[in-house]
Amino acid sequence: MKATILTIGDELLIGQIIDTNAAWMSQKLTALGISVLERITVPDEHGPIVEGIRYCLRKSDIVLITGGLGPTKDDITKLSIADYLGVGMEFHKEVFDRIKAIFAPRNIPLTDAHKDQCYLPENVEILTNTMGTAPGMLWQHEGKQIVSMPGVPYEMKAIMTEQLLPRLAQNPDRKVILHKTIMTAGMGESSIADKIKDIVDGFDEEVSIAYLPGLAQVRLRITAKGDNESVLQSKLDKAVELVCDRVSDLVFGYDEITLQEALQEMCIDRGLTLGTAESCTGGHVSHLITSISGSSAYYKGSAITYCNALKQKMLGVKAETLEAYGAVSEQVVEEMVKGALDLLDVDIAVALSGVAGPKGGSIEKPVGTVCIAVGTHGLLETRTILSSKDRSKNIAYASNQALNMLRKYVLQVK
Description:
Layout: E1 2-8, H1 10-13, H2 20-31, E2 35-42, H3 46-59, E3 62-66, H4 77-85, E4 89-91, H5 93-103, H6 112-116, E5 119-121, E6 125-127, E7 136-141, E8 144-149, H7 153-168, E9 176-185, H8 189-195, H9 197-201, E10 207-213, E11 217-226, H10 229-246, E12 251-254, H11 259-270, E13 274-278, H12 284-290, E14 299-304, H13 308-315, H14 319-325, H15 330-344, E15 348-354, E16 369-375, E17 380-386, H16 391-411
Parallel strand pairs: 1-2, 1-3, 3-8, 13-14, 13-15
Antiparallel strand pairs: 4-5, 6-7, 7-8, 9-11, 9-12, 10-11, 15-16, 16-17
Helix pairs in contact: 2-7, 3-4, 11-16
């Protein structure tokens, strides 16, 4: 079964509101083995809506429409659907009675706009909206289906979850789709693709891979799609095993696990304590670590030493080191790590110092340069990275790099 998603609203096209509905619907449909071919957005205008429906139904078996079902004049989805189907509008008393039941306890009088919500295109099957006044609607049309739902996310989700998805799950034409995501860090997507090219080229025709890059991370989503679930699961497991064996040093987990979650599990398993010393990231590494419940079992704290004076006072960075190499140097972050180990009384520490931007930097140390050190008194590892000119991206990128350096360092501890 093939589906398309049509979202309606000027506010989506001008970027005033982010379309989270389409992403959520895509996830739920894919989980049922329904292929989502395309997602398009059109304005609150009759012509584009009608053309959007026509376009979607040429490509798919079912089109899911959200938006434009409210009581105001710009909500014209129902009339557009009626025109596309070539039918009139009819009053539905059950919808009116439901609206009355919703407003009666609050002593809110019904208006003509509320009554207008009860006029629906003919031949409709109503999908009850338990979270609002505008009903979901479904039509059978020339062997295909049109579904229209409110654009309010919690209303759409209620209709999908309670009414539509259980029906679609009974469709005999849907495929089985299985996914497994391998989480990696430490190498870019093109390099990973080159490294596993021969493996991917040898995948069964029912198995595919997608490379989903992030900041200092790449998700490898492997998909198996077909008719026999047990056979597909075997093919998926084999593909995941082959890829993981090839890039084992990059893999930190599966599906939705984060670097900080993986690091927490590793440190707790080994009985290690951790501390951070941050300059340019301003506590972002600490924020990521402490965003995970249970981090207090291994994470002791952080020293945010944004200025050189505090680097010296709190972490014991030598004035001559700062003078000779500058605050953005591997020599300084080494001394920051040593100071953090003592100040925070931890087994392992990480330190970062750099130029987050957009101002600052030099020819030798441009914006996006960040020095990172990880280690103990006995063994230190340092690295200098270069990112972009965007401050927030530089901070996020450097923080993820630091977490991955910590992960790889902890792996050495038995």
